[in-house]
Structure formats: C-alpha cells, structure tokens
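Message: A physicist's question: would you kindly supply an amino acid chain plus fold tokens?
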Amino acid sequence: MERKNFVYIVQCRDQSLYTGWTTDLEERLKTHNGENGGSAAKYTRGRRPVDLVYSEEFETKSEALKRECAIKRLTRKKKWDLINSKREQE
C-alpha cells in the first residue's frame, strides 16, 4: 500500500498559520489538537484549537517536503491567497 503525503496549513486559535507535512492528515490534526496523546508541534501546542484551512496531496515525501518549504517561504498574504484560491476551486 502506497502512503500518501500531505502538505497542510492550519489556522491556530490566535489566527496564526502553521504549515506542515504528514502521511496521515486526520491523525496529524488530532495530534495538533491534543486529541490522541501524540506530540503536537511546539508551535501549535499553545495555540489550540487548530483548524485545517489548506492541504495538498503528493505521491512522494520528497515532493511534499519541497512544497512545504516553498509554502513556508511565502508571506502571510500569499498563504491566504493560496488558501482562498483553493477554496474558490472547490
């Protein structure tokens, strides 16, 4: 079974944005919100709850990590442009 790779953006309670990578988006969100006892990212731990506002799926971990780095380099405005453009497509 091939693992899917996701890049995601969550919006924290303080309205900040956090970008990450995972192979299990649903479980990772639970972890960020402290629902499964896992280790949330240090950044989001004190900013719960978080809400998923964006995600992309990739075939390989390498592709996902490259995209994660690219998104992390974007300004907040550009991240919101990305989020909003995906919402318009749905």
